[in-house]
Design a protein that fits this description.
Layout: H1 4-25, E1 28-30, E2 56-65, E3 86-95, E4 100-109, H2 112-115, E5 131-141, E6 144-153, E7 163-174, E8 177-188, E9 198-210, E10 217-230, E11 240-254, E12 257-270, E13 276-292, E14 295-308, E15 313-329, E16 332-345, E17 351-367, E18 371-386, E19 394-407
Parallel strand pairs: 1-2
Antiparallel strand pairs: 2-3, 3-4, 4-5, 5-6, 6-7, 7-8, 8-9, 9-10, 10-11, 11-12, 12-13, 13-14, 14-15, 15-16, 16-17, 17-18, 18-19
Length: 408
């Protein structure tokens, strides 16, 4: 497995030092229920003030989580009693008076081996495939910040399964100028099944950010990534491609609204077709409006155009979305989001439209020192129209009423 020796060494080193420090100051936190988003490659923010007088300080936390799996149709929601369960063990450590922070995380999804998808080609998943482990480090030295992350999730893990990634990054800030860069790699088929292809993507990214007080924020980013397939079984076509991306963005931030416009140009090359290049232009305009403290409005407009030089085909993809979020009080919240997207090619082989809408109303009927009673209403609508092939049209409307009584 990629990086297994490197990862094993880091785990042994971290846990060896962690165990000694934990025994010395006796810090252990155990929370029965946690709604912390797991599996994220970013580190928790460490407050350096609590470690000013110590060289190393370590904290263990244990969590049990029942994640909600996102679905486009309400009828596909899982009953509360059948939700999967994730157990998590996290160790965080700060070094050198808070200048360096490290994390080691292990998670296991008890229902992951059979809940998400059926086993591919009849293979039986083991308990190891339902695990995820992650390592991370962030450090700072004056104007320089740096770090690395490594994540490995088996095929049976619930959140972002069958994927591994590793990345190193750095950031240097001086005044109103910030330089950022990162190098990383991602791949699937982490268990190395010979019946499936493995897609490996390697990327590099460098960016410049200009942020002067009272001025718009300007940024320029260049990225390059390559995609290669390995473990190529018979009957599955190999893949080799390379992309170059240049993006420029300008952002304005005010107390009652935020506005950002980004434009990018992508040059994509299919290395197996020789001169099969595609050029992609994309523009995105996004805003966040806060007319009152309890209301947030988020409109987004985007347009993407791809031109395939090897076939002469142009593909247009306009999209638009609008979201509202209203919180009258801690007891009453309402949110709704709608989006429209379409895809159309100049040769007429692609012509589809997608319309989605979803609304959620949460109301806390009663709260006491021991119990909280909540009722929620959800409604959704989804319509997919394929004008090139009418047989694939889809229309769905659904609703859900959820009643919960939870102990505080």
């Amino acid at each position: 497995m990629k990086g297994s020796l490197f990862v094993s060494s880091l785990v042994v080193l971290l846990l060896g030092i962690v165990s000694q420090t934990w025994c010395s100051d006796g810090i252990f936190l155990n929370t029965q229920n946690s709604y912390r988003l797991t599996g994220s490659p970013t580190l928790q923010v460490v407050d350096p003030t609590f470690a000013q007088s110590e060289v190393v300080r370590t904290i263990f936390t244990s969590h049990v989580q029942h994640p909600s799996i996102a679905t486009s149709r309400l009828r596909d929601l899982t009953p509360e009693t059948a939700r999967p369960r994730i157990e998590q063990l996290l160790a965080t450590a700060t070094w050198f008076n808070g200048k360096v922070a490290t994390e080691a995380e292990v998670e296991h999804s008890e229902s992951g081996a059979t809940w998400v998808t059926p086993s591919i080609l009849g293979h039986t998943r083991t308990d190891a495939s339902a695990r995820m482990f992650r390592l991370g480090l962030t450090g700072s030295d004056g104007s320089l910040r740096y770090g690395f992350t490594f994540r490995h999730a088996g095929q049976g893990f619930i959140l972002t399964p069958d994927r591994a990634s590793r990345e190193v990054w750095s950031e240097w800030e001086t005044g109103w100028v910030t330089f950022r860069n990162a190098l990383g790699q991602t791949w699937n088929n982490v268990e190395g099944e010979t019946t499936r292809s493995r897609l490996e993507q390697t990327y590099g990214r460098v960016g410049l950010l200009l942020n002067m007080p009272s001025w718009p924020e300007l940024s320029v980013t260049y990225a390059r990534n390559s995609l290669n397939s390995t473990l190529e079984p018979i009957g599955i076509a190999p893949q080799r491609s390379s992309n170059h991306t240049l993006e420029g963005a300008v952002a304005l931030r005010r107390p009652s609204w935020d506005l950002r416009f980004a434009s990018s140009y992508i040059l994509a090359s299919d290395l197996l077709r020789g001169e099969a290049d595609s050029s992609i232009r994309a523009q995105t305009l996004a805003a966040i409006l806060r007319p009152i403290n309890t209301l947030t409005i988020t409109p987004i407009l985007a347009y993407r155009q791809e031109f395939q030089s090897w076939s002469g085909v142009r593909i247009d993809n306009p999209t638009a979305s609008l979201a509202f979020s209203y919180q009258q009080s801690p007891q009453l919240e309402f949110s709704t989001i709608g989006n429209y997207s379409s895809s159309r090619s100049s040769d007429g082989l692609i012509h589809s439209e997608n319309l989605r809408w979803r609304s959620v109303l949460d109301w806390a009927l009663h709260s006491s020192n021991e119990w909280t009673t909540k009722i929620g209403f959800e409604a959704g609508y989804n319509r997919l129209t394929n004008r090139a092939t009418r047989t694939t049209d889809l229309e769905d409307i659904s609703g859900l009423v959820r009643l919960s009584v939870a102990q505080r």
